[in-house]
Design brief:
single chain; 124 residues; 7 helices
Length: 124
C-alpha cells in the first residue's frame, strides 16, 4: 500500500494520524494493535500498541507496557531524522498522572548515553 501511504510519509509529522485516518480509514496504531491481537500477543501489548500515541485516553494509573512504549517512542523520536518517526510527543499529563514526571530527565539521559555508545561502536 505504499502508493496510498506515500502522502503520509511525505507529510508533516503532526498530520500523520489525521492523514492515516483520511486515506486509510485507520491509524498505524490501530492497524498494529489489530495485527498483534490476531497474532495472539498478550492483551497488555495489544493495548500498548493501540494507545502508544494517546496513552492519556486510557485509565492506566501505573507504569505498564503502554507507558514504556510511549515514553521510549517519544524520547527516541525527538532525534530521528525520518519524518514518519517524529509523529509523537511525550504526553506530560500522562507522565504526571503516573507520578513519573521526575523520571523524564533520567530516561532522556539514558537514551542519549546509549546513542553515544552506539555511535562510538560504529566502525570508523
Amino acid at each position: 500500500m505504499l502508493d496510498k501511504y506515500r502522502p503520509v510519509l511525505e507529510s508533516d509529522p503532526d498530520s500523520t494520524v489525521a492523514l492515516e485516518l483520511e486515506l486509510l480509514g485507520c491509524t498505524h496504531a490501530q492497524l498494529g494493535a489489530y495485527l498483534v491481537s490476531i497474532w495472539g500477543l498478550p492483551l497488555p501489548l495489544v493495548h500498548a500498541v493501540a494507545y502508544h500515541h494517546s496513552p492519556a485516553q486510557t485509565a492506566d494509573m501505573q507504569f505498564s507496557s503502554l507507558a514504556a512504549v510511549h515514553f521510549a517512542d517519544a524520547i527516541a523520536s525527538t532525534n530521528d531524522a525520518a519524518n514518519l518517526n517524529r509523529d509523537i510527543e511525550l504526553d506530560l499529563n500522562y507522565l504526571d498522572r503516573l507520578g513519573l514526571k521526575q523520571r523524564e530527565a533520567d530516561w532522556r539521559s539514558f537514551y542519549e548515553e546509549q546513542m553515544m555508545l552506539k555511535d562510538a561502536a560504529k566502525p570508523q
